[in-house]
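quick one
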Amino acid sequence: MRFHRLGKTLLLLFIGLLGVQAWAKERDSREVVDRELHKPLVRGGIVFKHYCARCHGEAGEGENRTAKLYVGLNMAIKPQSKDAFFKIVSKGGEAVGRSPFMPPWEEELSKEQLSDVLAYLMVVGERVSRGEAVYKTNCTLCHGVDGDGKGRASKLYNPPPADLTRSDKNDDYKTSIITLGGAAMARSPFMPVWGEQLSKQEIADVVAYLRTIVTKAAAK
Ligand code: HEC
Ligand code: HEC
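structure w/ heme C:
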């Protein structure tokens, strides 16, 4: 009788251990899947830094020394479909009716590098899209749908809301004035404080979006 009970206990313990083992195994494989999923992105970021950053900026923000040579072009990466990204990156700017200074990469990059860098571009694009949504929700009334400073309420303010398509301010400045408001930066107090309503991430996203609408090359 006693032995029987012991046997049962051991059996239950054994089953329990199997469960723990299965759980640990599943967790391990989930970590492996996570790692595998993120690998292309990490590799894509490295490809981007190596081949693309000198023109498009470290993170695709379009701001760096050589970018200034391309006056009148906006070098920030804008959201596009994977197909559209594939076309311009593999065939070059001229093939899609854009600047011939965007080189074709199909011969320079391996298939894997190309697909990794596309994964990276998609993530940059998503960030800009999120930033655009933040902008459309909070900023158009003053700065206008296109960011030209001609929103419906713009006439109420003097100085008027800035024309964000011609801004010569860098990302740090924009982040500060958006977070702290105009008054803190010795500008118009009608530029509101957004630091309490928007998260840091949302502000970073909207700053990423603003880069894509500047039409002249950034001066500094
Ligand atoms: C020699 C400079 C240069 C290099 C290097 C370069 N590009 Fe470009 N790229 C350009 C120019 C110029 C444009 C066109 C901008 C325009 O027509 O408005 C462009 C446009 C693009 C666009 C479309 C921009 C948009 O509107 O979203 C993408 C995407 C892009 N490049 C990706 C890449 C990738 C990925 C690499 C690296 C594998 C790369 N570029 C390397 C110069 C460069
Ligand atoms: C109530 C109107 C109003 C709203 C809403 C508003 N702004 Fe402004 N913003 C202004 C005004 C006015 C200025 C100009 C300040 C000055 O020139 O002294 C300004 C200036 C700025 C500047 C400085 C640009 C430069 O080149 O100097 C940035 C960046 C900016 N706003 C971003 C935003 C963003 C992003 C949002 C939405 C999250 C936003 N603003 C919402 C009124 C507004």
